[in-house]
Design a protein that fits this description.
This protein is α+β, with helices and mostly antiparallel strands. It contains 20 helices and 19 strands. Strand 5 and strand 6 form a beta hairpin. The protein binds adenosine-5'-diphosphate and magnesium ion. This is Histidine kinase/HSP90-like ATPase domain-containing protein.
Length: 613
């Protein structure tokens, strides 16, 4: 007889629930991970709020998550997941569970509706379906929640959100049980008949071990009941007799067979702490398996794919703050990265202090843009728990962290380049351009980053700058390149600008990416050897038969001889070119249009005008 408010789901939610319920059967295990991760978020929010508002802690003691499964009076299986986190007011229940606030989920929807079912499975991991994954296993879900006390809400009331798997609406009403929770949220899943297996503590334990032990930094307890056979205590004096009088031995044998029925079955009930291992970043790297790193990464950074590589290390510098960290390279660069490389900064650095999560946003400068995609967990020993952005800056912790993370990342990349050719190919495909950006942007690490860069040439599919230098011809004093963004290397390889160089056996870098040209213009030299644009006038190879003076003389003679033709050509093309000259660089082509020696090349001009727009 409590008034129940009925709400229709936002249309997006209705669509999402339909996808969830219809097409994700084989992925339904994820519900537990999602609910645990929500509970963990709520606990983290509570703890962070408590730093400035103590009263939020009242109502319930420990910060933890509990899971209990049982059969209800209708014989349906129920799984109850409860946390002592921040909780939700009735308005929040409506807003958070009845609408899709997250942009990620809408993206999920858009993509899920355009892919087949197997694709959708991957999407769940990528976006996280969150709360709605409950309907993968439940016919009905009750969310009972009591918001934490705060200055704005000093007398919160416990409310229930309830919805069935195939209902287009949900209900919100005051909990008929009253404020039973003390604080936090309790989610009751009334299991579908074909999902009854999730009542089994072994299955829950397995799932938590496999997928969710990293989803929470707070303790997760599971309610267990097991039957145990215990032998009933024998009366004490009987034992004494046994020990003291050997003549009683025969008698004892007789009593022994009498004792057998004295064992009995009792039910032992207890809360089992499931995620009792220390977090993996605190463990000795030698004791952590690859699988553990992988599932830790997947759970922590909500990535369906396994990481490509990682490094686990301690940072300990003179300035006082010691920390443990793991850096991860995602399987590929996020598709958003290049949409706005200069602004893009994923900043997925999860900072903990003494194992307590503090923030995942350390600000724009935490890492340079080229490295903003790297995923980091870091746990600092000596920072205060209520550390603020300002404190972080004043301890120079951020600077120190940045340089140590970059040092380890660069070493990891170099190690892959050197020792893991297959992984290197995958890595380079996704991150190759990031290294070029880095070599331009991060002058401190320029050399190490440039060593990771690869370029196509007229002689081979790709080369590093190091290999290019090894392949130099005798007397060659420049690194030749030809740049034209937007074309293909095949096209460039046929360019008139490299005819002569190619014929003479010189290697020329063929640059087709806008970043390539910015790269060579910024570096200017590699190991003292200058880059030379072969499209610029005045090019010298270094092995010419004539001296520059002789060449000039020859050029002068030819120019005089062909003066009428040159004058006529200049008249015809005067609007387009600055000058028409005799060239010695062509082998089979009859003419070429080249950039002025001092001027920008066509490519850079295009980019300059684009960047001013
Ligand atoms: P996400 O966690 O990615 O935001 P979910 O669908 O998992 O998406 O959850 C939606 C929202 O519901 C959360 O952002 C949070 O505000 C709220 N929520 C879910 N579970 C809880 C909980 N146990 N305690 C408090 N709030 C919760
Ligand atoms: Mg969630």
């Amino acid at each position: 007889n409590v008034p129940k408010q009925k709400h229709d789901y936002q249309s997006d939610v209705a669509r999402l629930r339909k996808i969830v319920i219809n097409s994700l059967y084989s992925h339904r295990d994820v519900f537990l991970r999602e609910l645990i991760s929500n509970a963990n978020d709520a606990l983290e929010k509570l703890r962070l709020t408590s730093l400035t508002e103590k009263e939020v802690l009242s109502g319930a003691g420990d910060l933890n998550i509990t899971i209990k499964a049982y059969k209800d009076e209708d014989g349906k299986g129920r799984v109850v997941i409860r946390d002592t986190g921040i909780g939700m007011s009735p308005e929040e229940l409506t807003a958070n569970l009845g609408t899709l606030a997250k942009s990620g989920t809408s993206e999920f929807l858009a993509r899920a509706e355009s892919t087949d079912t197997t694709g959708t499975g991957n999407l769940i991991g990528a976006f996280g379906l969150g709360f709605y994954s409950s309907f993968l296993v439940a016919d009905r879900v009750y969310v009972s929640s009591l918001a934490a006390k705060s200055s704005r809400n000093s007398e919160p009331t416990q409310y229930v959100f309830s919805s069935g798997a195939d209902e287009s609406s949900f209900e919100i009403y005051p909990d008929p049980q009253g404020n039973t929770l003390g604080r936090g949220t309790e989610i009751t899943l009334v299991l579908k008949d074909d999902a009854i297996e999730y009542m089994d503590p072994h299955i829950i334990t397995d799932l938590v071990d496999k997928h969710s032990s990293f989803a929470s930094t707070f303790p997760i307890y599971l309610w267990t009941e097991r039957k145990e056979t215990v032998t009933e205590e024998e009366p004490a004096e009987e034992k004494v007799t046994d020990d003291t009088d050997e003549d009683e031995a025969v008698v004892e044998d007789v009593t022994e067979s009498d004792k057998t029925p004295k064992t009995k079955e009792v039910t032992v009930e207890e809360w089992i702490h499931m995620n009792s291992q220390p977090p993996i970043w605190m463990r000795d790297p030698k004791t952590v398996s690859d699988e553990e790193y992988e599932s830790f990464y997947q759970a922590t950074f909500k990535d369906y794919e396994k990481p490509l590589a990682w490094d686990h290390f301690s940072g300990d510098s003179g300035s006082g703050v010691s920390f443990k960290a793991i850096i991860f390279i995602p399987s590929e660069l996020s598709s958003e990265y290049w949409q706005n490389p200069l602004q893009s900064n994923a900043r997925d650095i999860r900072l903990m202090v003494k194992r307590v999560f503090i923030t995942s946003d350390l600000g724009e400068d935490a890492l340079p843009k080229w490295a903003s995609w790297v995923k980091v967990v870091v746990d600092a020993e000596d920072l205060p728990l209520n550390v603020s952005r300002e404190t972080l800056q004043s301890t120079r912790f951020l600077k120190q962290l940045r340089s140590i993370v970059l040092k380890h990342l660069l070493a990891l990349l170099a190690r892959i380049q050197e020792k893991e050719p297959e992984k290197w190919v995958t890595l380079h495909k996704s991150y190759g351009n990031v290294f070029k950006l880095g070599a331009v942007e991060d002058t401190k690490n320029r050399v190490k980053l440039a060593e990771l860069c690869r370029f196509a040439t007229n002689q081979r599919k790709e080369t590093s700058l190091e290999e290019y230098l090894e392949n130099r011809k005798k007397g060659q004093k420049q690194i030749f390149y030809l740049a034209d963004m937007g074309t293909t290397t095949e096209h460039l390889a046929k360019s008139v600008f490299i005819e002569k160089l190619h014929a003479r056996g010189y290697e020329v870098l063929l640059l087709t990416d806008p970043l390539d040209e910015i790269f060579v213009q910024n570096l200017r030299l590699w190991k003292t050897v200058p880059f030379q644009d072969v499209a610029k006038a005045g090019l010298r190879f270094g092995d010419e038969e004539m001296s520059p003076e002789e060449e000039k003389e020859e050029q002068k003679k030819l120019t005089e001889q062909y003066q009428p033709l040159l004058t006529w050509l200049k008249e015809q093309a005067g609007d387009i070119v600055r000058d028409v000259v005799i060239s010695n660089r062509l082998v089979t082509s009859s003419c070429a249009i080249v950039a002025d020696m001092m001027g920008y090349t066509a490519n850079v001009e295009k980019m300059m005008s684009a960047s001013q727009a």
